[in-house]
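Example 3.2
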Amino acid sequence: MASSGPAPIVSLRGVGKVFGNGLRALDGLDLDVREGEFLSLLGPSGCGKSTALRIIAGLSEPSQGTVTWRDGADARRGIGFVFQEPTLMPWTTVFGNVFLPLKLAGADRAAAAPRIMETLSRVGLTDFAEAYPRELSGGMRMRVSIARALVTAPRILLMDEPFAALDEITRFKLNDDLVSLWRELRMTVVFVTHSGFESVFLSSRIVVMTPRPGRVSNELVIDTPNRDAKFRTSAEYAGYCRVTSEALHAAMGAGAAA
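Structure, written as C-alpha cells:
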C-alpha cells in the first residue's frame, strides 16, 4: 500500500523469492523505504520479513520483480546490517570487532580509533573497548554489533530481529537507545520484528505482512513525537498497539484465505 511521504531511497516492486527447495518466501511484495524513516516489517515467523531485508541488502537476489535504488545500485554500499545474533569475533576485543568493517575497507587502525571510540560512546560501551565478547552480557554484545554497523556511517541501517533473544528489561533499554540513535544520526532504519508492541514503540511506519508467501497486507503510520517510558504506558500507545494487533490478525486471515 502506497502512502505520501519523501521519495523512496529503494523500491521493491512485485518481488518474489523461491528457494531451491521450492519454498516460496515472498510473492508480489511491493515496498518503499523512505529517507529518514524508521520502518518496521511486522509479521509472523516465516512470513519472509528477513528474506525481504536480505534482498534490500543485496545478500539475496529476488526470483522475480525489481529492486530499484534512487541513486543507483552503488547506494547499497551505504548499508549497515545488524543480524539476529551478534556474530562477533571471539578472539578480538570490542574495539577490534567494531574496527572490522573499516579494516576491510582498508582503513588504518590508529587513524580509525577516534571514530571507533565515538561510536562506542554512542552505544554506551566506551569503558568496554578492550573487553572480549565472552566478558559481555547478551545486551552488550548486541550493542557491539550495532556499533559495528554504525561505524561506517551507513545511510540505511537494516536490523533483523536484533533484540528477539533478550530479556524484556534489556530489550526496552535497547529500544530506547535505538530511538535516540535514529533521531541523533538522522538515518533510515528498516527493522524486522514479530512484536507489535516493539514495532509501535520504535516505528514511524509499520508494514504488516501476510504469512508465507509474504506480501504487504497493511501499512500503519505511528505519528507521535513521544517515544519514551511514558509513551509505553500511555493511552496513545495502547491505541496504536490495538490497531496494529487488529491489522496483524487481518493479515493472518488474508494469508489463510490466499
